[in-house]
Amino acid sequence: MNPSALAELSSRLPALRLLTEPGDLEHYGRDWTRRWPPAPLAIALPASVEEVQGIVRWANQHKVAIVPSGGRTGLSGGAVAAQGELVLSLARMSRVLGFDAVDRTLTVQPGIALEAVQAAAREHGLIYPVDFAARGSCSIGGNIATNAGGIRVIRYGNTREWIAGLKVVAGNGELLDLNRALIKNSSGYDLRQLMIGSEGTLGIVVEATLRLTDPPPASQVMLLALPDMDALMQVFALFRARLSLQAFEFFTEVALKHVLGAGAQRAIEGDYPYYVVTEFDAVDERAQEMALAVFEQAVEQGLIADGVMAQSEAQAAALWRLREGITESLAVHRPYKNDISVRIGAVPGFLGQIQALLAREYPEMEVVWFGHIGDGNLHINVLKPASLSDADFITQCEHVTKLLADTLQRHGGSISAEHGIGLVKRAYLESTRSAAEIALMRGVKAVFDPNGILNPGKLLA
Amino acid sequence: MNPSALAELSSRLPALRLLTEPGDLEHYGRDWTRRWPPAPLAIALPASVEEVQGIVRWANQHKVAIVPSGGRTGLSGGAVAAQGELVLSLARMSRVLGFDAVDRTLTVQPGIALEAVQAAAREHGLIYPVDFAARGSCSIGGNIATNAGGIRVIRYGNTREWIAGLKVVAGNGELLDLNRALIKNSSGYDLRQLMIGSEGTLGIVVEATLRLTDPPPASQVMLLALPDMDALMQVFALFRARLSLQAFEFFTEVALKHVLGAGAQRAIEGDYPYYVVTEFDAVDERAQEMALAVFEQAVEQGLIADGVMAQSEAQAAALWRLREGITESLAVHRPYKNDISVRIGAVPGFLGQIQALLAREYPEMEVVWFGHIGDGNLHINVLKPASLSDADFITQCEHVTKLLADTLQRHGGSISAEHGIGLVKRAYLESTRSAAEIALMRGVKAVFDPNGILNPGKLLA
């Protein structure tokens, strides 16, 4: 890069906030992966669409790489700047721009936190239903960049389903106003859909119009203890057929141990290998009786060993904490994360094969499982033994990920269900997408970002 | 084209059914638009994915244009072959390939009729909820190509929401297996979404895996007569807030006259300018009483002039026929069709402007309105006066469409809500998509179809 380029950016956009202090470079240069030492050129904090466009045009002229940056809660390194990139943080563009009661949409800037979006929707008696544990710190722009899923997908789908319109600065600096919140619009390629899940490699989201919906009916939360893995899919099938599920989340005894260690309250006495937290519509007493009847049927069939139904909102929150607290409780162990998915119908066969694989390949490591059974999505966290160096640990984990990727490929699965590919999963993209698809993706990338300035090296090597 | 090319296709794919009789060329060369005289080179009716790939590879070598062809019920000329193209009809690939009870998906070939898909879903106690009047003759491949909407979008969304996976032969002959029915898959650009609504210009759908869902609860159908256009949006707001709508369809007195003329039964005595057919969940007597209370409230406020609640399935079907029979009742008048949309919130302002526009520009023509108010989607059919020649009629209509497109652009609307752009709306694409978007669309087209053999001239000029 021309060393005077940064000075030129400042003179071209005099109001642009630019940070170059080492502490800022460190803070904004990494995400939750913590694997790559941050080394950005500088941090730009635009306050307007025009400033974003100005930065992108400048970057094209000087061939400077840009890393779009939201809450940096990503787990695939998509927001890491380790190669002298300019971090373009959307942190200052975090306002609610408008609410439309007839269209039931909320228009926001990309840097707003998911939790703030949810709160803004509730103010209007509606909900934005995408939800997951990082809600307080992740940004809606990052949610869009990875098509974030979470704990309510079984009822509400992924982020994609809730994006009515997007304003995007493409890699060439053009501002695109995609779909403009139309419900029906059959006027050619839906570029909005292409942007969702593109991990900042095609364009920078500068405004999003989100669909909202009615709050769900009153619900009930249950914690279930299961005797074995076979019971899991059977309980899921039974509950899905008889109840209206909002969530069906599973975790293992090992996961429970960690979350209890981090201060959560035990809700079921005794040790069981698998647990489920499920939430379902329970509008009235009849619905609650129906849920109890389904529960008892599963107990009689030996599918459920024990269970608790929340008797209060506080208890419901405590049961949810057993599932939602897992990721945080593991953080101290620097886990290596796999976030994989298969079709729901392929889960049992796939689970059997990877359990055997992990037992064989990780005999001495602690493996923590949890996930969204109703979406075919499993999170496999491998904890670093204190005796292993970081580098050796990663090397061993990558070896297993290669085997896991092969197994996934045989089952038609995905190496990234909801975290994105970023840097972490880039070497395994071929297990999920064919060579022909990857070639087309490269072609699309070149159309939107001809100079390759947007998040280079992420997603596509 | 090299005149021996067709012979080479036959020798390369000896089992391929090829038609060249004038009657077949006529039959397969046009869709419901009837505006362009059909003039295809030949009709190919492949029976397998391999034959489709063979045709596409051959077409690339000989630079022959291909028109992918389903039920040819399209209203934008997307399936017209008027320039010596090879029509690639999917009519022989029309089977159900599989049902998965756990994933609740149905895998079908592209040539299957929508009605056959709906019937196959019902056999398994589930529904495929996309629905519209052409269900008996349109094909699922065509539905995907235009992201078809219809009469249940207010509850279930467009075709896009129901596509779990697509197998596609891209313009370069590669077979793509897109998304493989995964619920969560954040592994790069979602090319499945790009294919949906691409009108056969990027690839040919050769297999689709469709999501199914539970049947809706028991419902009620009402016909409402409204005193004026202002009442329409108010009744919609009231009904949406208080009832769980499955459909909310509007039509004018002029539309009613045509459908009654075609044999439908009058359900409300007296003449009113606007009508609504609405269907909503009515699980029990309480729900029916609630609906009646809402209806009576609207009557008291002067928003509804008269109404009928269906007392039987037969009467519900008769009320629906008043709305669904409109298109067929107009066919004899060779209508010029506009299929436009705006955000729901923009409907009132937009309606006022185009009513004035149409009254001014079409003083001597009969204009028939109907549409899906809950989706912001209006169908404006202009009937040809017997005194006008076809060519003069089209010229006059195109003049008005230009003015309409300008009005749409000011309101952020779309020139095609659910019919696609095809040939009919191509000249107006700029009213809905910016120059920057169209340039990106051209770039994407070149990536997927480098030789420009797939439906050239459709969507993009």
TrEMBL record, chains A, B:
Cofactor(s) the record lists: FAD
**Which Pfam family, any one, appears in the UniProt record?**
FAD_binding_4
Q: Which InterPro entries match?
A: FAD-bd_oxidored_4_C, FAD-bd_PCMH, FAD-bd_PCMH-like_sf, FAD-bd_PCMH_sub1, FAD-bd_PCMH_sub2, FAD-linked_Oxase-like_C, FAD-oxidored/transferase_4, Oxid_FAD_bind_N
Q: Which organism is it from?
A: Dyella choica
A single GO molecular function term of this UniProt record: FAD binding
Q: SUPFAM superfamilies of this UniProt entry?
A: FAD-binding/transporter-associated domain-like (SSF56176), FAD-linked oxidases, C-terminal domain (SSF55103)
Protein name (Swiss-Prot/TrEMBL): FAD-binding oxidoreductase
Presence of the UniProt keyword Iron-sulfur in the record: no
What highest taxon heads this organism's lineage? Bacteria
Q: Can you give the residue ranges of the FAD-binding PCMH-type domain?
A: 36-215
Q: Which GO terms describe its biological process?
A: respiratory electron transport chain
Q: Which family does this protein fall into?
A: Belongs to the FAD-binding oxidoreductase/transferase type 4 family.
| Keywords, in A-Z order | FAD, Flavoprotein, Oxidoreductase
